[in-house]
Amino acid sequence: MNTIKKFINRRECTSIIFLIALYVIVGLINPTFIQSDNIMLCLNGATVYTICAIGMAFVIFTGEIDASIGATLGLSAAVVATMVRDGKPFTLTVLVAVCIGLVIGLINGFGVAVLKVPSIIMTIGINSIVRGISYVYTGGAWVENVPKNFKELSQQGIAGLSWMYIGTIIIMIAIYMFLAKTKRGRYFQAVGDNEDGATHLGLPVTGTHLISFVICAVCASLASVVFVSRIGFVTPTSGNGYEMKAIAACVIGGISLSGGIGNMVGATFGALIMASISRILVFLGFSSNYDNTITGILLITIVVFDAVMQHRNTEKARRERLSARTETVAESKVVGGNM
Amino acid sequence: MKEKLKKFYSKFKFHWEYFLVMFIIIEVIVFGTMNPKFLMPRVLFGSFNDFISICIIAVFMCFVFITGGIDLQAGSIVGLTSIVIGVLWKTLGISIGAACMIAIIIGCLCGALSGFFIAFTNVQPMVITLGGSFLYSGLAIAVSNMSNTAAYLGISGFPEYFTAFTKKRFFGVIPSQVLIFIALAVIAYIILHRTKYGREVFLCGINRRAAEFSGINTKLIVMSTYIFSGMAASFAGIVMTSYLGSSKSDFGSDLTMPIITAVILGGTSTLGGKGGVVGSALAAVVIGIMRFGLSMNGVSNQYLDIPVGAMLVIVVAASTASKNEKINAFMHRHLTFKHKLTDK
Amino acid sequence: MGARIMLENISNGKTIKHEDTLLSVHDIRKSFARNQVLKGINLDVSEGEVLALIGGNGAGKSTLMKIIMCIYRQDTGDIYVGGKKVTSSKPLDAMELGMYLVPQEPMLFPNMSVEENIIVGFSEKPGELHKRLVDLLKQLGWEMDLSRKALTLSIAEQQLVELLRGLLRNAKLLILDEPTSALTFNEVESLFKIINDLKKKNIGIIYITHRLEEVFEIATNVAIMRDGIITLNGPVKDFTREMLVQGLLPPDVKENKQAFKSKLPDYKNLKPIFSLKDFSGYGFKNICFDVYPGEILGLAGVVGAGRTELATTIFGKDSVLGGKAYLGMEDITGMSTAKVIENGINYVPEDRRQDGIFKIGDIALNTSCGSLKKLGKFFMNFKVEKQFTDKYINDLHIKVTGQDQLIGSLSGGNQQKVVIARILATNPKLIILDEPTRGIDASARGDVYTIINKLKDQGFSVLLISSDMEEIVQLSDRVITMFQGCINHTFQKADINQNNLMSAAFGVYEDKKEGAKI
Asked: Which pairing describes strands C229-235 and C23-32: parallel, antiparallel, or unpaired?
C-alpha cells in the first residue's frame, strides 16, 4: 500500500492521470478521438516537442532556463532543409545539425556557467542573435522543396507509430536511467537541488551546467531534423515559441523550475499533453487559436499549485521542528539511536 | 595600477547614464555619417514612432525588475489592449475614449493577476508571466474572433481624432509620441524616485526580509509593480493602435526581448535593488535608434535583433564577469605576474 | 617526504614533528584585497585529539578552514597533512587526503534521499557504496532510514548525514563548524557522545565553537583566534575560563566589568508597559512576563530556546497559537508587523546581514526605511530625511564618510548602529534587541551598551535577547531565562550572575529560595 501511495504522490503520476483523463473526456465527446490511429497521430505529432522537452529538462533540472531553443531549432531546420534539398547525404546533414546545437549550447553554457550571466538573460540574447543569423542564412525566404523521401522518414513506423517517436522514447529511457543511476547522472540533480552543496562536495558544477546547455541545444537541433521531415518546409519564423512550449511541457510534467525535482518521464508526458491540446481543440471544433490560451492557463495553474504545495510543506516542516523544541526532555528522541 | 583601474571602473559605473547618452550621440554621428538623411530632425525624431512602445513599457517595467522580478507578458498585453479597443468600438459601439479606459483597466487586471500569484504564492515570476503571455495572447485572439473581421486584417476605420493625436508634430518636427513618452517617463520617474511608494519598491528589491521587518507590505508592493507594467503595456497598445490606425491582436508580440534589453541595458540588475527610470528610458532610446539607424542603412528588419541581442549579452556578461571573484583573481595574478617579471 | 621537520609553535614554544600529526599548518597568511584576514597561523591536530577553535566573528576561523580544505589558497605558509606538504586549490584533493568539513549549516540536497546525499560524488559503484555505508552504520551503532528524503530531516539529523559523508570518505580529520548552534539540548548531548566515539577511533577533530562551556566538556586541546592570529594554544586542562576569555579580548581593552551606574526602575509604583499572558507560538509555550518602563529585561537561553521565535511572533511574523500580548492597554496579539511598529514595538533582527540591513543602500535609506510615514504623505521629503539621518549619526556616533555611503562598506558595529537608529526613528515604547553585539568588535560593543543604557535612562523599555551571558549580566535589571520554549526562571538584580544564568539556560538551575518569583 505504501509503495502505491508513494507512486501516486509523485508528480509525474498527476500528469499521467491528467493525460488519461483528458483523452477519456474527449473520447466521450467524440469517440473517433480515441481510435488507435488518432492516438498514434497524437504521439507522432508530439515527437518534436518531446525531444525539445527532454533537452530543456536537463537545463531546468540544474536550476537554469534556456530561452533560445526556438531560434536554435529554426536555424538548424533551415540548414537541414537546405542541405537535404540540395541532395547532401543524410548523415552529414544530421552531423551538421548537431554541430550547430553544440556551438550554440557551448556559448550559452559558457556565458551562464563561466561568466555567471543569469541564464534567462543570456539565452534571451542568444535567441535574438541566432534568429538573426538564420535570417541571414535564408535571406528571409522560405526553404521548400524538401525531397519526398526525406519527408517520408517521419511517416515510417510500426503500427502507425513512427520510428522517430519510438527512438525518442528509447533514448528518453536511457537518459532517465543515466540520470537516476549513474554517478555522473546524479550530478545534475545535485547541482539543481543545492548548488552550494554541490560546490561544497567538490562536484563539477561548471561542467555540469555547460553540459546541460549543450545537451539542450543539441536536442533542439536534432528535433529540427524531425521537424523538417514532418512539416516539409521551413519559414523564417519556424521554431518561434518552442522554448515556451518546452518549458511548459517540463513544468506540466512535474519538473520544478527551482531545480532538483522531476524527471524525464514527466517531461515526456508533459510534451504529450502540450501536443495533444492542439489536436483536441481541432477535434472538438474549436479554433486552434485557443491553443495558447489553454497552455497559458494550464501553466499558471500547475505552477501556482506546485508553489503553494511546496511552500506549505516547508512551512509545515519548519513549524514541526520548532514545536519539537518545546517537548519535554523525556519525550525528545536521542539522536544516534532510532531515526 | 589596479587601484587606478578600479577607481576608473567605479566612476564609469556610477555615471552609467552618461555613458548611455554618449552612446546615443555616437550612434547619431555614425548613422548620420552613413546616411545624412538620418540627421534631419524630422527623420531623427520621427524614428521614435517606431520604437515608442519599447520606451513606454521599459520605463515602467523597471519597477518590476527592481523588485527582482521579470515580466514576459507585456508584449501580449499590448496586443490584447489593441484588439479590445477595436472590438469595443466597432462591434459594441462604445466610444473610443471609454474603450481606451476599459483597455487600460484590462491591462492593469492582467498585471494584477500575475502579480498576485507572484507576490502571494511564491511562484517564479518568469514562469507566471510566461504563462500570462500565452494566456493574454490567446485571449486577444479570442476577442478578435468576436468581431467579424479576419484576424490578420485587423480592425480599422477609427475616427480621425483618435488617429490624429499620435501623428501630430509639434513645431513640425517633434512627433507627439515623443512628448507622450517624455510625459510618461517623467511620471514614472516621479513615482519611482520621488515618492514613498517608490522608495518602498527599492527596499523590497534590495532586501525583502528587511523590508518586511521594517513594516512594509512587500506583497502589495510586488504585486503593484506588475500592475504598473501591465498599465504601461496598455498605454503602448493605445498609442500603437492610434498611430497605425488599426487594431490587431498580435501587436507587440515581438517586443518582449527589446524591452527587457532596454531595462537591463539601462542599469537595472536582474537581482533587484538597482536601476532607474532614467537609465531605462535612455537605454530604450539607444536600442530604438540603433534599430532605426541600421534599417535606414539598408539592414532589413529581421537582422536588427542581432546587434540588440549581442549588446544585451555583452553588457550583462561584462558586468557579472567583473564581479566574479575567480576572474578577478585570475586577472590579478596575471597582472602581478607581469610585475614580478619586470621587477627582476 | 619522510624528512623530519621541526616546527616552532609560536604560542607556547612546543616543537612538533609534522609526520606524527594529522594536520599541521605553518605561518598561514591570507588577505582579501587590502584586508589581512590571517596574519601567520600555526596549528596542529593529532589523532584522537579534539581541538576546540574559539574566536569571535571576523577572527578568521572560516577562512582558515577553507584554506585547509583547499577552497581558498593561502598567500604564504604551508599545510602538512600526515607529514606531506599540500598545495592545491581543489576541495576534492583535500577530501581525498582524508579531511572533511561539516559546515555550520548542513548543505544537503533536499530532494534526494539520505543515501544518495551521502554517496554522491564518490567514484565507486553505488552497489558497493551501499554495502560500505550499511557496514559503517552498523559499526557506529546508528540506525537511519536511508531512503528518507533529506528535506524531512531535522537539523541534527542533517548534521549526522554530513558527518556520515566525511566518515564514508574515511576522513581522518573532521572539521565541525559550530555544530551545536542549531541543536537542542538533547541533540547536543548526543553529538558529544558521537564525538567521543570518534575520538576512540583516532579520528582528529577541529571543533569550532564560541561556547566556552563546550570546550571544557568535549575538547582535549584549545586554540583561540583573534584578529587573524592565535593568541592561546594548548591542552584544555592548562586553562581556566578566565584565561580563555582573556585570550579573546584585544590587549588594550580590559574585560569591561564596569557596571553602568543606572537606577533600577521603581517596580512597586510602575505599571508594566508590555505584558505577555500565556503567550504560545511555534517554538515556545505559555510565556508570561512583564516589562516595565525604563527597564532592561534580559532574555537569556541557549540557541533553540525559542527566544527569537518569541520575539518575531510578537512582532507579527508568525502565527500566535494562544495567549495574549498587551502593550500598555492595547491588545496587540497577532497584529501585523506594520501595526505592531505603529503601536510602539520595534525589533532589531538577530541576523543583521540577512534581515537587518539593505546592503546596497546608503545610510539615509537604511535609517529612514522604517519611518517612511514621517517623511511626508505621498512624496519623499529628502530634506527631512537628511536631517534626521544626521541627527542619528551624531547621537549614536556612527562613523561614516557621508550619508550617501553604502551601508555594506561600514564595519559591523556601525551597521548595527544604523539599524538601531532606524528602530529609534519609529519612536518605539519597547525595543527588542536580538543579539545586538553579534559580530561586532569590542569598542563598538561598548558604544552599543552606552546607547542601550541611554535608552533606559530616557524611559524606553528594552527586551534584550542575547547568548552572551556577560552582556546580559552587565546590562539587565532583571533576567528571564528560557529553556526549551518555556520560561524556567526569573532573576532579580541581586541574583544575576553568569553562573546562575548559565545553569538556568541549560536547565540545571537549582532555586535555593523557594517561591521567589515575579
From this structure: unpaired
Task: Give the span between the Cα atoms of B232 and B224, in whole angstroms.
Answer: 12
Domain count for chain A, please give it.
1
* Closest chain B residue by Cα to residue C353: B210
Mean pLDDT value across chain B: 83
Residue A258: which CATH number?
1.10.3470
Any domain includes A314:
no
What does the alpha-carbon distance between residue B253 and residue A78 come to, in Å, rounded to a whole number?
A: 23
Q: What is the pLDDT of residues C113-134, one digit of tens each?
A: 898 898 888 877 878 888 888 8
- Mutate: best of C90, C351, C360, partner B, most B CBs <10 A: C360
Q: Nearest-CA residue of chain C relative to B195?
A: C379
Average pLDDT, chain C: 82
Domains of chain C: 6-108+153-248 (3.40.50.300), 272-344+429-518 (3.40.50.300), 353-427 (no CATH)
User: Could A183 and C122 be called an inter-chain contact, meaning their C-beta atoms sit closer than 8 Å?
Assistant: yes
- Give this complex's ipTM: 0.80
The predicted-structure confidence for B221-254, as pLDDT tens digits, reads as follows 999 999 999 999 999 999 988 888 888 888 888 7
pLDDT at B166: 76
Write the single-letter amino acid at A184.
R
Are A183 and C127 in contact by the 8 Å Cβ rule? The answer is no
CB burial of residue A51 (10 Å; 0-12, 13-18, 19+): buried
Number of C-beta neighbours around residue A101 at 10 A = 27
Residue C205: is its pLDDT beyond 90?
yes
Burial of B5 (0-12, 13-18, 19+ CB in 10 A): exposed
User: Which domain range does residue A278 map to?
Assistant: 11-307
The order of strands in the sheet holding C274-281 is: C284-291, C274-281, C320-327, C330-331
- Cα dist. B36→B292, C63, C258 in Å? 14, 61, 81
Nearest to B209 among C355, C361, C422 (CB): C355
Which residues in chain A have their CB less than 8 angstroms from residue B313's CB? Answer: 111, 117, 121-122, 125-126, 129
CATH class held by domain B47-299: mainly alpha
CB atoms within 10 A of CB A240: 17
Number of residues written out for chain A: 339
C49-71 pLDDT per residue, tens:
999 998 765 678 888 888 888 88
Span A33-47, pLDDT tens digits: 778 778 888 888 889
**Directed axis angle between helix A242-252 and helix A47-61, to 10°?**
70
Contact A117 B320 (CB under 8 A): yes
Instruction: Report the predicted TM-score, pTM, of the whole model to 2 decimal places.
Output: 0.82
CB contact under 8 A, B212 and C317: yes
Mean pLDDT along residues A63-71: 91
Per-residue pLDDT of A166-223, as tens digits, reads: 888 898 999 988 888 888 888 999 999 888 888 888 889 999 999 999 999 999 999 9
Question: Does B201 contact chain C (CB < 8 Å)?
Answer: no
Chain A positions touching B121 (Cβ under 8 A) are 304, 307-308, 311
Q: Tell me, what's the pLDDT at B4?
A: 57
Residue A130 is classified by DSSP as H
With cell 548537431, the residue in question is A98
Q: Which residues pair with B257 in a beta bridge?
A: none
C327 pLDDT more than 60: yes
Phi, psi values for residue C517, rounded to 5°? -130, 165
Residue of B132, B306, B312 with shortest CB distance to A132:
B306
With left for phi above 0 and alpha for psi between -120 and 50, is residue B135 left, alpha or beta?
Answer: alpha
Q: Are A142 and A236 in contact (CB under 8 A)?
A: yes
**C412 and C440 Cβ atoms separated by less than 8 Å:** yes
Domain spans of chain B? 47-299, 305-344
Closest Cβ opposite residue A334 in set C95, C145, C186: C186
